[in-house]
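Lecture 7 notes: from sequence to structure.
We start with the chain below.
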Amino acid sequence: MPSLRALVELVRAPAALSVPGDVVAGAAAGGAFRPRTAGLAAASVCLYWSGMAANDWADRELDAVERPERPIPSGRVTPSQALGVAAGLTVAGVALAALAGGRRALAVALPLAGTVWAYDLRAKNTPAGPAVMAACRGLDVLLGAAPGRVVRALPAALTVAAHTYTVTALSRREVSGADRALPAATLAGTAAVALSAGLPAARNGRGAAAVPGALAAWYAAGYGAAQARVAADPSAARVRAAVGAGITGLPPLQGALAASAGAPATGVVVAAFAPLARRLARKVSPT
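Predicted C-alpha cells for the same chain:
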C-alpha cells in the first residue's frame, strides 16, 4: 500500500482548501446556504482529489521525464493504485452530493465528475483544456446552489470559471516557461474577475460593499503580484509560483462572491483559508 505521504501528494490534499469556497459561494448566491452545504462541500473535495489522482495517472509517462519526483514515476504509487483512488473518490463525491442535495445536486455532480475526467483524459493538452477546466470550477459553484436557485448563482460560477481559465492557461507553461504576452493577458483577466467579484449584489441590497471589495482586492493583490513577476521574468519557476498563487489565492475571491451575495461574515471565513493554504503549499505542491 502507498504511504499516507504519497497519497497526500497524489491528490494534492492541501490544495483542496481552495474547493469548499466554490460550494459556499454558490450556496450564498443561490439562496441555498444550509447545513447540507457542508455535505456538498465534502463531495466537491472528493471530486477535486479524484481529478488530481486521475491527472497523475494520465500523465504518468510525461511525469517520468518532467517530474520524476511525483508519486507514480518515483514508484511510491503504482498506476493501478492511482486509478483506483481516482475512481473511488469519484464515486464517493457523487454519492455524497446525492445524499446531501438530492436529485438536484446529483444532476450537477454527474456532469461535474464527467467534466473532470474529460479534462484529465482528453482535453488537458488540447486548446480546449483551459475552457474545460474552467467548466469544472463553474459547475462546482453551481453544485452549492443546486438545492436553491441555480440561475442566480450563474454570475458567481462564471467569475470563478474565468479565474480558473487564467490559472489553467498559465499552468500549461509550468515546465517550458512562458512569453510575456501570456501573463499580461491573464493579469488583465484577473483584474476583470476582481472587479466583478467586488461589486455587491445590487439587486437585493444585501451585504456591505466594503467587505466584497476588500476581499476582491486581497485576491487581486496576491494573484496579480505573482503574475506581474511572471511578466518580468517568464521562467518556468515563476510560472509555477503564479499557478500556485492562483490556486491557494482562490478563497478571497470565493469570499468576495459570498459577501456580494449577502453573506459578508461567511465570506470572511472562507477567505481566511488562504493563509493556511499558502502555508501548506510549501509542504505539498498544489500543482
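Points to note: The chain has one domain: 4-281. The two ends are 24 Å apart (CA to CA).
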